[in-house]
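Cross-check.
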Amino acid sequence: MKKYFLFDLDGTLTDPKVGITTCVQYALQSFGIQEPDLDKLEPFIGPPLKESFMEFYGMDGEQADEAVEKYRERFNDKGIYENEIYPGMARMLQILSGKGFRLAVASSKPTVYVERILEHFGIRQYFKAVVGSELDGSRTGKDQVVMEALRQLFGDKPIACKEVYMIGDRRFDIEGARAARVESVGVTYGYGGMEELREAHADYIVKSVEELQEFLLRELCEVQQKGFMSVIGPMLFPFLLFMLIRQAASNGVLWLAVAAEPHVPSGLWPWLYYREAQTGALGYTGNLGSIMQALSYAVAGIAILPTALPVMREAKKRMALKHLRREHSRNYILALLTTVGAVLGLNLLFDLTGITNSSVTYQAVAQSQLSASLAVGLICYGLVTALAEEVMFRGILYNELKRSYKLPLAMVVSALLFGLYHMNLVQGGYGFIMGLLMVYLYEYFGSFLWPALVHMLANSLAYVLGYTSLADSFIHSWPAAIVCAGIAIVGIKALDSAKRKLKGAVVE
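Predicted model, tokenized:
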């Protein structure tokens, strides 16, 4: 859990545009440079002034020092107060401080000015340390500022980098955080913007003060000690509803099938029904059996949607804070390859080891499902049942588990319950492993579309393999099983590596 928050000042705590840009304008005028458009001077907000004068106006070191002196000439008495604290910021700082978080300011602005600005807005008391640059030109790099703020915050204790966020609006803040090996939170309401923060590889990005407050407080409310029923209830009741409605819908669909039989066109009748040769009793083909099962799943899935949608929306909102950066297209390809490798590898391993033949229950389920035509099976099992189960297991159950347990435990428990739900060894083991992959990709990409896609792909591939007789195919071999399993393992490792690099976990 994060306990220490370092805040940039300009563009993060306060909006200094008028004061900074008019003072830059004043300094430029001393060099005979007229810049009437203050918007063009916004790049001066955030980075060290001397470097900005050199970068944007081609000044040498001596000229830049002179420009900084002219800037301060106006800023010291007037520009410093041409500033506004962002709405809701003071209240947020009060809440964070009251919750026991330790706050500090890490700014490129000289410390003496930072102190005056914080006092001016009545928020100085919330910060345990205030660190900026020095008037003599020392400690201007953001990495130096961040490190000094950490030293002051932690004092004689070792610096716990994993417990720190650096919060800022410019790439310099993100780079300073990376150099100090702490995670960063970019704010787009300042002056860096979304693209700059994405390119700087901010670990998280928020769009408003309200969203920042919710983000920083989220760990206090994500995992709470609750009573047994307050944990089980939100999962158990929807699950029981899902199972009961599915059974009721199955009975209703069966009644409809019987009632509709006399009215089915003769050309379609053999595709759906048959008569027992000896008794003449009405029977149902695999096609109709699969359609009836899919309809019962669809009805149950729709019935729990009113419960699932609010839970899924809340989960999406929380996940969005970690997934505002564009995901590289290769990660999507890696995820799909990992899924295909896992499905093929597991099916081959289960078949080659004889596990599939050892379960009578599984054999009965497989025989029933595979008696339908390929197209019907893919629609019923690869699409309808997969989506209905996702709404229940990832949409409700997994997201509810995350509210009460740490993420790894929630992932394992949800996958275990998904496996037990299938009520046989083969589908149970397969469901557990695929359940882990589904929640992993759910968290990785932050979208419910991914577990739904993986579930549909897994069911469809498994159905095609069974329908085409896996045991007789050319890939039915130990080398093929090992290669497929290897692809899945390497894919997961590659995805993990990509995420670590993106978050800057490894600093050169």
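The CA atoms of residues 161 and 181 lie 6 Å apart. The two ends are 25 Å apart (CA to CA). Passed to J.P. for a second look.
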